[in-house]
């Protein structure tokens, strides 16, 4: 996969899947904007790893990727717009937007607070909506095509009891993608979803530390392991490349078979 000369912003990339995506894209030669909200040390670590990718390489065709970190809370539209503007200012342009930042809150439906509902929907859906809008405005202003890749979830499709606000946000993301595939296609802008299943990241810390829950989950995964950020990142690298120019409006599941695992004993 060659992403030399491409500038990519990955939201929520100080840890987990976002960090994995940044590293994979940098390996392919992209320049990357690393966004964080509350983990500056994670963003710095990601940046150092990006720099090391170039530094370790002594062959003629080395990726010479540059990284740049920006603090922004995706739940604040003002900060979202600032993030897109700073990215463009730093690298001169943006070619690909990866809407990765996301949060979830565990509670039975009847106990969900307005504050938790707002926190989840603001980051997972409203932030995605307006980051994408600012990116599309930039592409229109500079008369260029571009790619949008959303990190959704198997829960854009699959119920997840006690995480209703999260599922609502991911279901909304699915329709966001279908709608924009139609509306932005004539502008040469593509949009797709990557839907991870259970990936070993900080969002799953509680589950990873609970052997009973973890074993029950593993029973539901035909490939019998949790995914790694790199499993998701390689698909994102493909979708960000020109190999994916004719693909838009689709969801690609990366879940070890979790989504379609129902079977009768
Ligand atoms: C959620 C995880 C969950 C996984 C599989 C993801 O979207 O963020 O908490 O373990 O789906 O259910």
Q: Would you mind describing this structure in some detail?
A:
Strand 4 (96-99), helix 4 (114-141) and strand 5 (146-151) form a beta-alpha-beta unit. The protein starts with 6 loop residues before the first strand and ends in an 11-residue tail after the last strand. A 7-stranded parallel β-sheet has the order 3-2-1-4-5-6-7, with helices on both faces. It has 8 helices and 7 strands; from the N terminus they run E-H-E-H-E-H-E-H-E-H-E-H-H-H-E. It has helices spanning 16-27, 40-55, 77-91, 114-141, 164-184, 205-208, 211-219, 229-240, and strands spanning 7-10, 31-36, 67-71, 96-99, 146-151, 189-196, 251-254. It is globular and about 55 Å long. It is an alpha/beta fold. The protein has one domain: 3-Layer(aba) Sandwich (Rossmann fold), CATH 3.40.50. Helix 1 (16-27) runs parallel beside helix 2 and helix 4 packs parallel to helix 5.
Report the biggest beta sheet as strand number plus sense, adding barrel if it closes: 7 strands, parallel
CATH superfamily: NAD(P)-binding Rossmann-like Domain
* Alpha carbon gap, first and last residue: 42 Å
- Runs in which pLDDT lies below 50 for 5 or more consecutive residues are none
> How many separate helices?
8
List of distinct ligands in this structure: beta-D-glucopyranose
Chart the SSEs and their pairings.
Blueprint: E1 7-10, H1 16-27, E2 31-36, H2 40-55, E3 67-71, H3 77-91, E4 96-99, H4 114-141, E5 146-151, H5 164-184, E6 189-196, H6 205-208, H7 211-219, H8 229-240, E7 251-254
Parallel strand pairs: 1-2, 1-4, 2-3, 4-5, 5-6, 6-7
Helix pairs in contact: 1-2, 1-8, 3-4, 4-5
The structure holds beta-D-glucopyranose (BGC).
């Amino acid at each position: 996969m060659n992403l030399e000369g491409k500038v990519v912003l990955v939201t929520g990339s100080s840890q987990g899947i976002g960090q994995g995506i940044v590293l994979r894209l940098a390996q392919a030669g992209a320049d990357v904007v690393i966004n964080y909200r509350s983990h500056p040390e994670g963003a710095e670590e990601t940046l150092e790893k990006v720099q090391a990718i170039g530094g370790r390489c002594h062959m003629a065709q080395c990726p010479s990727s540059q990284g740049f970190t920006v603090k922004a809370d995706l739940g604040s539209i003002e900060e979202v717009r600032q993030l897109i503007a700073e990215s463009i200012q730093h690298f001169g342009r943006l070619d690909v937007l990866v809407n990765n930042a996301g949060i979830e809150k565990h509670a039975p439906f009847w106990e969900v607070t307005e504050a938790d509902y707002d926190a989840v929907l603001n980051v997972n859906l409203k932030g995605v909506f307006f980051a994408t809008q600012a990116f599309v405005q930039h592409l229109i202003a500079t008369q260029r095509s571009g790619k949008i890749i959303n990190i959704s979830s198997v829960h854009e499709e699959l119920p997840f009891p006690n995480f209703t606000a999260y599922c609502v946000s991911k279901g909304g993301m699915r329709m966001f993608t279908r709608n924009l595939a139609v509306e932005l296609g004539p502008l040469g802008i593509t949009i797709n979803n990557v839907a991870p299943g259970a990936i070993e990241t900080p969002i799953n810390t509680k589950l990873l530390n609970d052997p009973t829950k973890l074993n029950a989950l593993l029973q539901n995964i035909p490939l019998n392991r949790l995914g790694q950020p790199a499993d998701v990142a390689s698909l994102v690298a493909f979708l960000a490349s020109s190999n994916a120019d004719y693909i838009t409006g689709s969801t690609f599941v990366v879940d070890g078979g979790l989504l379609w695992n129902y079977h009768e004993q």
